[in-house]
Design a protein that fits this description.
3-stranded mixed β-sheet; rod-shaped
Length: 483
């Protein structure tokens, strides 16, 4: 998913539309860096490419990803964007609301005490203008928010960001509290005080992140989510933050959400999960390199292929050996490799020892088939059809190798020796011939020398390099595996 996105009302093609309400109501009070992030992100939200990312925005503006997230937190609190902290994290630009509706007539005496207390909070700072008073009054008229609760929010925001703070930010914080069901002074104060108590913990987190910026309300809310919703302890959060210096709070949030989904809640569980993830990444990259493909992001490969193979009992070494065999045999795609792995699994081959024994057995079988072809007067490689016929003769018709070899001597000079051999053996099967002696006696066949019986399997196979023919035989036999 792209980092920046838009609501449908903002979707355009080839150009970027900026609502005049942004210039008139939001830009004058916004920090320069926040304006730059907002405008660049709005332009990039048309793109689904690599340039639409928090890292790309940071690089283009010469700031850090943490600065980008801070800017978007500013706009999120004003209601201009929505930040999703689910992995992958992304930002949705929202259509600006129409603020031209006339205010309802409000009795000045109703908010006289509130207005005085409000101005006192900004004493020594700035004067509250009529538009700001009206915005507070309208909010209180439209909601069940208590006046004292809104004053508590204003005080909290002033302590956090200073007396130059704009009322849009304050009302956004108030709306966030209201979405949590907090509208009274007691509940709102409890929420805000609870978040303020995280400041000492946040100092340690920011120290590990290498960040010198001031806390934002969004930072406190994020930390509150990690502790209260996700259930992480402070030492775990600080420990994870050590690995997020280049990504700031955004990267830390993404990593903690990932650990939470994987059930890794303690430092040890996270270390174990990280080590396993590193192993899987390295294995996926090595497999790709072995078969000659490249993927910048291997997470999808791990999810789609690797995790399933490992769950079936395949060893890392076995998968790498299979990849090597695939490359030598011209199978150079992950889908092709997956097909071979599935066929090996159907044959019970999951370990390197079993794979080597299986290849050796196939190679020995091909030697037996070559012996039959030689008796038939043929000097060529073993084909898939030869293997299918041999499987029929030995496994379905249960004819001993000596009998097959004996019958092959009678095909010399035939136009199609293998087909002729198949007819002879079919006749043997129907007649119940099971030994060379019976074959000799069948239809007055002349006595000929027979070959010594050769057994396949039944002993340990020595590890050795395999020829191209042997590897080709492996994949041909696998193709013949029945589903």
């Amino acid at each position: 998913m792209a980092f920046c996105d838009k609501e449908k009302q903002l979707v355009t093609d080839g150009y970027t539309v900026i609502d005049n309400k942004f210039f008139l109501n939001y830009l004058p009070d916004a920090p320069e860096k926040c304006v730059a992030v907002y405008l660049l992100g709005l332009a990039l939200s048309n793109s689904l490419g690599d340039d639409n990312s928090i890292d790309a925005i940071a690089q283009k503006l010469g700031i850090t990803p943490d600065d980008v997230l801070t800017a978007y937190q500013y706009w999120d609190e004003l209601g201009l964007v929505t930040i999703s902290y689910d992995a992958p994290q992304h930002v949705t630009y929202r259509a600006l609301k129409d603020g031209t509706n006339a205010l309802r007539k409000i009795s000045p005496s109703k908010y006289k005490k509130f207005s005085q207390q409000l101005q006192d909070l900004f004493a020594g700072g700035r004067q509250i203008n009529t538009s700001e008073y009206d915005a507070y009054y309208q909010f209180l008229e439209d909601t069940a928010f208590e006046q004292e609760a809104l004053l508590a929010v204003i005080k909290y925001c002033i302590e956090l960001k200073g007396k130059s703070i704009g009322y849009q930010y304050i009302l956004t914080v108030a709306r966030n509290e209201m979405r949590k069901g907090a509208t009274t002074l007691a509940v709102v104060s409890e929420h805000l005080n609870c978040q303020q108590k995280y400041d000492e913990d946040l100092k340690l987190v920011f120290k590990q992140l290498g960040s010198n910026r001031k806390f934002e309300h969004a930072d406190r809310e994020m930390y509150d989510k990690w502790v209260r919703e996700l259930g992480f302890t402070q030492d775990v959060i600080v420990n994870v933050a050590k690995n997020c210096k280049n990504g700031g709070m955004a990267k830390l949030d993404s990593m903690l959400c990932e650990y939470y989904k994987r059930g890794a809640m303690s430092v040890k569980e996270i270390d174990d999960y990280t080590a396993e993830k590193t192993r899987l990444y390295d294995l996926a990259k090595n497999i790709n390199k072995t078969i000659g493909v490249y993927y910048q992001n291997v997470e999808s490969i791990i999810d789609e292929y690797l995790a399933g193979w490992l769950n079936k009992g395949f060893e890392d070494e076995t998968l790498l050996e299979i990849a090597k065999y695939c490359f030598k045999s011209g199978v150079r795609t992950l889908a092709g490799l997956a097909d071979i792995v599935d066929k090996l699994y159907k044959n019970g081959i999951t370990t390197s020892q079993a794979l080597r024994a299986y290849i050796s057995a196939i190679a020995q079988q091909d030697e037996l088939i070559k012996g039959i072809l030689t008796k038939c007067g043929l000097a060529r490689k073993v084909t898939a059809n030869d293997r299918l016929l041999y499987k029929t003769w030995t496994q379905i018709w249960n004819l001993p190798y000596e009998v097959i070899l004996f019958a092959s001597e009678k095909t010399t000079g035939a136009n199609n020796p293998v087909a002729y051999l198949n007819r002879i053996l079919s006749d043997y099967k129907q007649a119940g011939v099971a030994t060379v002696e019976q074959a000799k006696a069948h239809k007055n066949i002349e006595n000929k020398t027979t070959a010594t019986k050769v057994l396949i399997g039944g002993r340990d196979m020595e590890r050795r390099p395999y020829t191209d023919d042997e590897l080709n035989a492996l994949f041909t036999v696998l193709d013949e595996t029945e589903d």
